[in-house]
Specification:
It comes from Candidatus Gottesmanbacteria bacterium RBG_16_43_7. By secondary structure, the chain is of the alpha/beta class. The protein is 31% helix and 31% strand.
Length: 382
């Protein structure tokens, strides 16, 4: 049995349910980290490529009654005489004493090593970029009742991979599918509940295909995407082809043009396991602060009708026990929140059951804020 620490990114309330999909036994230690005891052979590097919400994985080393310099000198090794190290707390309840770092450095320097300690600039621990580019030995500390749990970072999220997915695809549009790839990956994993073999997924507002990318990387058997705009659907199809060739993926894909409220006309009934989508959230002018509160309220009413119409139609496609993960917007106008109302209540009247949500995702100072929900659908014919 080994214990591992998972450090979450900037959306911990999505990172946590994503992690528990794979590890129901996970224990949440703080807002930004969780501990998982694993009894089987575990490949941290391979697993970190499957998820979007965890930035790094660290392995439990030992419990210390106090944080002493000699203990860390014993743990730090060097192959070439150069040592870069970092020791960081995994929550904000306590900080690492700089004197501890200075003492460790002096002790290692006295042994003949060239030593540098690195401290985080903004976050609790080192960023993936800093860790990956500086050959750092990083220890993460969790304060426990009987002392301090010491974990050693094993692997960090591959920032180059996510940059490639986001920026190197043939087509991208800030106005057509603004969901970041890591958020899309989390939404897909939450929907799939850790099981993608022989499953199908649909994004009926696919935009440039970001959610389709997540489903393909998660090894869904069938992935469908549709968009009301024909040119957008064509671009999404080319993006999907690019990803398939780049990573030699075996997922079968189909991208087509369709109104999301009538998408059941294009696919076989009861053929979809998961619908994951960021729907149309109103004109881009809202985010540019070019629409007043009165107009935004009217737009929100229209979006409510659109979403309810979608949920009504999607019942035709979903298998019994199928699920929907959807981002429903709210708008912050003049320090007031305007919600898209009645969607959740209407869904439950249509036969859906809310399992999760709202989980908010928004960039700082954002006008349009997403609230993610997970619904499951019980087909009355079964």
């Amino acid at each position: 049995m080994k214990s591992y620490l998972f450090l979450f990114g900037r959306t911990p309330e999505m990172s946590w349910p994503e992690l528990t999909v794979f590890f129901p036994q996970a224990q949440r230690l703080s807002q930004y980290c969780a501990k998982v005891d694993i009894a089987w052979e575990f490949d941290p590097q391979a697993f970190l490529k499957r998820i979007g919400g965890s930035l790094k994985i660290a392995e439990y080393i030992r419990l210390l009654p106090e944080l002493g310099a000699a203990d860390f000198v014993e743990l730090i090794t060097s192959r070439n005489g150069q040592i870069n190290f970092s020791i960081n707390s995994v929550d904000s309840s306590f900080t690492i004493n700089r004197q501890l770092l200075t003492t460790i450095k002096k002790m290692l320097t006295d042994q003949g090593y060239a030593v540098r300690f690195i401290t985080p600039k903004h976050d609790l621990s080192l960023s993936s970029v800093v860790y990956s580019t500086n050959n750092v030995t990083e220890f993460l500390i969790h304060r426990e009742q009987s002392g301090y749990g010491v974990y050693k970072t094993l692997v960090v999220q591959d920032f180059r991979f996510w940059q490639q997915i986001d920026y190197d695809r043939p087509y991208a549009s800030a106005k057509s599918g603004m969901l970041p790839p890591k958020i899309a990956m989390m939404a897909v994993n939450i929907a799939a509940a850790g099981q993608t073999q022989d499953k199908s997924l649909l994004d009926p507002f696919c935009g440039m295909g970001t959610i389709l990318f997540g489903a393909m990387l998660a090894n869904f058997k069938l992935v469908y995407g549709s968009d009301l705009d024909q040119l957008t659907a064509i671009k999404a199809e080319k993006n999907v082809k690019w990803l398939t060739e780049l990573y030699e993926l075996i997922t079968k894909t189909k991208v087509f043009t369709s109104d999301a409220t009538h998408v059941s006309d294009k696919l076989e009934k009861c053929s979809i396991d998961c619908i994951v989508t960021e729907p149309f959230m109103g004109p881009s002018k809202i985010g540019e602060r070019k629409v007043d509160a009165h107009k935004v309220r009217n737009i929100a009413k229209g979006l409510s009708k659109l979403y309810i119409g979608c949920f009504r139609n999607w019942r035709i496609l979903l298998k019994d026990g199928g699920c929907v993960v959807i981002a429903i917007p709210s708008f912050v106008i003049d320090d007031r929140i305007i919600n898209v109302k009645s969607v959740v209540d209407s869904c439950e009247m249509l036969g859906y059951t809310k399992l999760l949500g709202p989980i908010e995702y928004a960039r700082p100072q954002a006008i349009v804020r997403r609230q993610f929900y997970l619904f499951t659908y019980k087909n009355p014919k079964h």
